[in-house]
Design goal:
With about 150 residues, this protein is an all-alpha fold. Helices cover about 70% and strands about 0% of the residues. α6 (about 70-85) runs antiparallel to α9.
C-alpha cells in the first residue's frame, strides 16, 4: 500500500488503478500452481537491499514523496536479518550493511526506521508487535498532517 500510494503520488496514476494491479499480483502469489515459494522470493537479500531495488528503492522514493515507509521497512529489516544470517563475515554490523549495500545515510530517518525494525526481529519480537510499531510510525506522520 505504501508503494502504491508512492507511485500514485509520483506519477499521477489513480491510486485505485494501482490497487487493482496490486490485488492481481497478490492473487497470483497465492496461486500454488505458480510455485512462487517464500524461498525464491526471499533469496538474494543483497540485491533486494540495493539502493534502486524493491525494498530500499521503494522506501527511499516513499520518503521523498512524504510517505513513511514503515511496512516496507519491516521487509527491508527482514532482508537485512537474512543477509546478516547468511553473511560469512560474522563481524559485519547491520549498520555497515545498510551503509555499504543499501547506500543509506545512517543518520537518515529511513535507516533508523529499518534498524529499529531489524532489532525487533533480531530480538524475536512477534510480527504483531512489529506491526504495531509500524502502525504507530505511520500514525505519528499523520498527526503532523492533520
Amino acid at each position: 500500500e505504501e508503494s502504491a500510494r508512492t507511485l500514485s503520488k509520483k506519477y499521477g496514476v489513480p491510486l485505485e488503478d494501482i490497487m487493482l494491479h496490486m490485488a492481481n499480483l497478490l492473487d497470483r502469489f497465492t496461486n500454488v500452481a505458480l510455485r512462487d515459494t517464500c524461498s525464491r522470493v526471499g533469496r538474494e537479500p543483497a540485491r533486494k537491499l540495493s539502493p534502486a531495488d524493491r525494498l530500499i528503492g521503494s522506501a527511499t522514493l516513499a520518503t521523498e514523496m512524504g510517505i513513511t515507509p514503515a511496512y516496507i521497512a519491516i521487509g527491508a529489516a527482514a532482508g537485512l536479518f537474512r543477509y546478516m544470517n547468511e553473511a560469512e563475515d560474522k563481524t559485519l554490523t547491520a549498520e555497515a550493511v545498510l551503509a555499504n549495500v543499501s547506500e543509506l545515510d545512517m543518520n537518515s530517518e529511513l535507516a533508523q526506521l529499518i534498524l529499529g525494525m531489524y532489532e525487533m526481529i533480531r530480538e524475536g519480537k512477534s510480527f504483531g508487535e512489529i506491526r504495531r510499531v509500524a502502525d504507530k510510525k505511520v500514525a505519528e506522520k499523520l498527526e503532523n498532517v492533520i
